[in-house]
Amino acid sequence: MAITNYSTINEHKKTLTDFLCSSELTQGINVELRWAAALNIFLSITAFIGNAIFLVALNKVSSLHAPSKLLFRTLATTDLCVGIFSQPLTAVALLPEVKQHIHVCRYVSTVRFLTAYPLCMVSLLTSTAINLDRLFALSLRLKYRRFVTLKRTYVVVTVFCVVSVVFTAMSFVSNTVTTWQPQQTAPLNTELYIKTVHTVLWVQLALAVCYTPYFITTVIISRRFSQPSVWLLVVWRYVGTLLYFNSSLNPILYYWKMRTVKKAMKETVQRVCCSCGCT
Which pTM was predicted? Predict the structure, then answer.
């Protein structure tokens, strides 16, 4: 690997984007960057396919309470958008050819940040809301359907989106300078909700495994920002890809742990395959 004069680079590079878009700093790790780009493209495809199937299948699942379905739908939609926007943009920003044109790299990196940051934040907040929803379902029992309504859930999801956009805007600036719900009193299917809790726990575990390395590496980079390490940036890129992998992993967990969703997803895939075969 070529030895880079970091002191010279530091005189001109002010932000993390400048370092990541520096062809001098990434000199000698082009192969690793291309592999990371290819991995992001592959995961973007799996995230898109898995979450698209889950969203279609979720419409056929009648056993989940409407607010719960809205939260799962929101989480799957954010994961789908990560596969459509954030991961392809990350792959483009990783390519050494793009780094030869620093203005293009900066533009792509900026757009990637403006899409990935709010999507990941909405995903985290929605996962927390799903946990609370399961807690309310088990603790409130008959009062649950009167307390957790679809209208209130829409408000919560809207607040999540607004908060995520605001925090994204604040971070970007700092770096660069209704549906009526009847009050039902029918008894809840406790076994169903306990199984859903188990699913949520697996989703949370996957989220922790995928997000924690990224946060740790980001903290380390921020502390050593004045003396960046090439391989530390490589690690940061790969743990960022691991973070995106969460979007591909969630629909697999839904399929594995939720029987009704598994059946609906199977039927959706069979219908798609049949339609393709007929045409």
Answer: 0.69
